[in-house]
Request: fold
Amino acid sequence: MTATLSRATGDPIVTPRFPGMKVTQLRVIKSEWTKFRSLRSSIITLLVAMVLTIGLGALISGVFAAHWNKVSPDERANFHAVDISLSGVGIAQLAIGVLGVLLLSGEYSTGMIRSSLTAVPKRLPVLWAKISLFTGVVGVVSIISTFAAFFIGQSLLAGHHIQTTITSPDVMRMVVGAGVFMTLVGIIGMALGGLLRNTAAGISSLVALMFVIPPVMGLLPSNWSDRIGPYLPSNAGQSFWSHPTGAHLSALTGFAVLCLWTAALVGAAAFRMKRSDA
Amino acid sequence: MIEVIGLTKRYGDKTAVNDVTFTVKPGIVTGFLGPNGAGKSTTMRLIAGLDSPTSGSVLVNGRPYREAHAPMAELGTLLEAKAVHTSRSAYNHLLALAQTNGIPKSRVTEMINLVGLGDVARKRVGGFSLGMGQRLGIASALLGDPQTVILDEPINGLDPEGILWVRNLLKGLAAEGRTVFISSHLMSEMSQTAQHLVVIGRGELIADVDEATFVAMASTNVVLVRSPQASELRDLLIGPDVSISSPETGLLEVHGLNAEQIGDVAFEHQLRLHGLTVQEASLEQAFMEMTKDTVEFHAHTNDEIADRHHHAAAGAGDLR
Reply:
């Protein structure tokens, strides 16, 4: 037997066989990376988000470039070259959000969570590791995608000299912001997956939050919708990655509001993971 | 060592485990017996820190499992056959678990070969049979070379060869001084593997004894007596604590007397005995005997059902 018993207070009672064996946050992140890369579904979902961001942005930029002569003066007045090239973000956020939901709900639906939490019985390091890994991987992929979408879109618009440049005012903020927005939506998805522990429920509530509630809010009298609407996560996000019409927050306030939404939902998910039976 | 102290777990208003106290000692295999729904799995989940007790506590190697620094060196668990993401390969599943505790990659390969999954290590776990899933669960339980092992129904779904393998593996782990705690609904399996038994029924502790004591405690030992003068002998033996049945002429089944007492009575009255056999209750019978009042869902005999209907009808009558 390699393990020995000692009852000295504070000392580990069992001496592990493998030197340096213990749980660290970095090791749990490494483990989450193994989990992430070994699921084909997570890689595919991430690629789908990338293709949507770049492809849809290029398509819409191309259509505008080809039909610019027929675009009405009204439309020309509201035309923003950045927004057109980032058209894919509105849909790609759904793919990223679903990826976030799956990362946690998938563990609950398969029973994997019980393996994960017996290996790391303090539990929260698992959630922090998932969020860190997600932020790292998805953040990088999202920002690369929005930059690619921007440059491809602008090159298509350049035919009619209606393009903009990355150094123009606010453009850098919007391109980076769109990538950050998608990553935050993904983390919100992960929190919903952890709160509801069910893939279908997690995706439905994410869709409701990001896609259903905002237009419903628009049906309310404007003195209501103008006060509440801008604080919804999707509208708060649009204030820093696009040119929203109507009542909206400043870019910085919008970013802070979206971060608050994310933090609140992650906090609730952490509370549930720590306190509830797995 | 596992110390379960005054453990109670309620889910809503249903009590799954009620004030249970026992200790699982190192160096031997301890069996955990109880009918379905008795609270075995709940107790094991509480030991592993997956559920929190309503009251009471559990210590694994002297402290709550959630406080372990190197959890996988303290406790190895197999709680459900497949606590695995079905789309992941066996190798990546074990690797991800090993990485959390800083267990080297070489150990992952070692465990895969130990449980005999070498050929399918890179295949999706979703395609595994019940027995393969069970082997993977055992590999993950032993990954950290743990001091204490808890396995819920470890032989479930294994073929005879696999059952023998697990039995020897568990005995080997205990012989190395580890604490081994296994649940099973197969009494015959327990009698061949476990040296100590913890028995629960409806969430309450029924027995915490070594195997021989358990059989003796519950035993309603029967003495089979063959005699050409069976009816005369029967009249002499019958008493307030003695019951006798006669399945065939010349054969008596005596409950409540031992072989010596019966032999002496026969000698004193000069009755011929052609056979005197003690039938020891098996572990299985002992278990059935001890838990028959605690089985949560059991098949009722027709008489019992008729009886219930009768009572129900009578009760309804009273109301009118």
